[in-house]
Inverse folding.
């Protein structure tokens, strides 16, 4: 009875063509910096550029801070709400959803308005601007980090684990870091990789906070060095792929993302 | 699932547990107030003030002047088009991979690719499309060499609406695949068997059973895609160099002080966007309620 599913295959073929054509196009372009010859020179140029190294290191560091800050903010809160304040859950969910309603461009608009002048003039110092950047990124990462942790908490018996730890004499620090967090490891890690993929090439917030980040550097390069910028595109694709690959390895399935670098 | 959360706190006496429990969420609320609520609130306040700081609704009247109204319309056109086209394309793909009788590996591959593509956006995505559809782009050259079809002669520009639409769809359809896949998994085999036993054709099963169950998810996801595109800026900015007058790009240039020349009007444009995004999210939640009736995950 089963016939060959020709329409399904055609559809899939179409989908993968759409997915792959721009990637092949970019790869092809990035290899053609020398006339009539394929070469990796564009990659060599980019990787050797001091500004690439600096901006990439900067964005990498900021991504790590974002992951740390977001984890420390979201995981204890979600745990506490699960355990003690379940009636606050809709409020927290509503707050995490604000990020959908206020996209990055509007968020940074408001952040500048508040933090570029007294009484909270964070943007006057480098470190203050870095802090603001990380906080902006935490806002972007909040919804899916929270969802990942919340799903993780639903999958384990928080109350029993907590009580068991308490009856063995554990304090809150031990309960969180030795009992609850290890159980959320997969959820936290997949949230972390998704955050990394979002933040590493983020353009809008970094631009307006005048940070020496990777996203603005990439955009700048695009206007002057077409081959090098396509080489960078391939590099950032590889990073995205690696992050998503890690999430898949963790068994959380592919995650969609609604906020961030767009 | 919910039972653990609704039990009363067993260990400490309830009154004492209650009085200190709120301390645990103070950092979160502090963060939310400082970096989410305050920035959004300041936009709202700015939008109802004039240059002297007095209350006014004039700024919102300014939204109807031609250049601003056109930005909104352009943003709406782009978002609706990419949401509908990307949504349908993504749905058909997910359907083919999950229910189309293909090997399971196709489904896994599709979901991985979708995870990558939906996260591959912003500046690099714009570069990828310039390298593909630009004057000397990969596809442009391919079309000319293989088919003798000159894309550049057709008036197509990689910096125009059609190209931007194609670029947005690149992150829109994978998102549809990712979100709709669980809904397709949720269609119960029994429903199809029951329909077949009652003598329904495949088409009738689809029209009367499956499609009505899936419709709220499809529409809901399309709304998510809409707001996804509506709030986007980096991709369009990098692709067109800021010359494409979307509402987000208008705000981008307003922050740089390049346009409008009236701060209050800039805030009003922002608040107008928040209202549109908030409205679409509300509709999404309404539709999701409907979905949950049938498709419990």
């Amino acid at each position: 009875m089963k016939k060959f599913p020709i329409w399904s295959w055609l559809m899939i073929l179409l989908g993968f063509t759409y997915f792959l054509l721009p990637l092949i196009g970019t790869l092809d372009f990035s290899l053609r910096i020398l006339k009539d010859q394929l070469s990796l020179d564009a990659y060599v140029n980019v990787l050797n550029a001091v500004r690439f190294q600096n901006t990439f290191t900067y964005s990498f560091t900021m991504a790590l801070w974002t992951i740390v800050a977001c984890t420390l903010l979201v995981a204890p809160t979600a745990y506490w709400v699960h355990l003690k304040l379940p009636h606050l859950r809709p409020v927290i969910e509503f707050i995490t959803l604000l990020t959908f309603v206020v996209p990055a461009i509007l968020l940074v608009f408001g952040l500048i308005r508040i933090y570029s002048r007294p009484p909270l003039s964070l943007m006057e110092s480098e470190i203050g601007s870095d802090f603001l950047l990380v906080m902006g990124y935490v806002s972007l990462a909040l919804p899916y980090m929270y969802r990942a942790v919340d799903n993780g908490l639903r999958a384990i018996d928080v109350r029993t684990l907590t009580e068991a730890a308490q009856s063995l004499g554990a304090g809150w620090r031990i309960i969180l870091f030795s009992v609850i967090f290890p159980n959320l490891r997969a959820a936290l890690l997949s949230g972390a990789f998704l955050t990394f993929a979002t933040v590493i090439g983020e353009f809008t917030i970094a631009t307006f906070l005048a940070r020496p980040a990777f996203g603005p550097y990439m955009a700048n390069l695009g206007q002057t060095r077409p081959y090098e910028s396509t080489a960078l595109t391939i590099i950032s694709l590889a990073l995205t792929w690696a992050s998503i690959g890690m999430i898949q390895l963790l068994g959380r399935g592919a995650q969609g993302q609604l906020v961030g670098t767009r | 699932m919910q039972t653990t959360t609704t039990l009363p706190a067993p260990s400490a006496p309830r009154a004492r547990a209650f009085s200190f429990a709120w301390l645990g969420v103070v950092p979160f609320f502090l963060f939310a107030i400082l970096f989410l609520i305050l920035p959004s609130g300041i936009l709202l306040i700015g939008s109802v003030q004039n240059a002297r700081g007095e209350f006014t609704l004039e700024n919102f009247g300014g939204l109807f002047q031609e250049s601003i109204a056109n930005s909104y319309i352009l943003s709406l056109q782009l978002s609706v088009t990419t949401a509908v086209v990307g949504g349908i394309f993504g749905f058909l793909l997910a359907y083919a991979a999950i229910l189309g009788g293909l090997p399971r590996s196709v489904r896994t591959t599709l979901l991985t690719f979708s995870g990558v593509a939906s996260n591959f956006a912003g500046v690099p995505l714009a570069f990828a499309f310039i390298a593909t559809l630009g004057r000397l782009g990969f596809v442009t050259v391919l079309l000319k060499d293989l088919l003798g079809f000159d894309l550049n002669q057709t008036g197509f520009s990689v910096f125009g609406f059609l190209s931007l639409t194609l670029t947005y769809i690149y992150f829109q359809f994978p998102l549809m695949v990712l979100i709709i896949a669980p809904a397709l998994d949720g269609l119960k085999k029994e429903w199809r068997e029951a329909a077949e036993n009652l003598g329904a054709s495949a088409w009738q099963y689809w029209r009367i059973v499956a499609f009505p169950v899936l419709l709220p998810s499809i529409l809901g996801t399309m709304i998510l895609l809409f707001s996804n595109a509506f709030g986007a800026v980096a991709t369009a900015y990098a692709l067109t160099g800021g010359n494409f007058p979307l509402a987000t790009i208008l705000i981008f240039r307003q922050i740089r002080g390049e346009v409008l020349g009236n701060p209050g009007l800039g805030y009003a444009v922002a608040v107008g966007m928040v209202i549109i995004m908030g409205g679409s999210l509300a509709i999404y939640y309404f539709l999701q309620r409907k979905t949950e009736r049938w498709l419990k995950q």
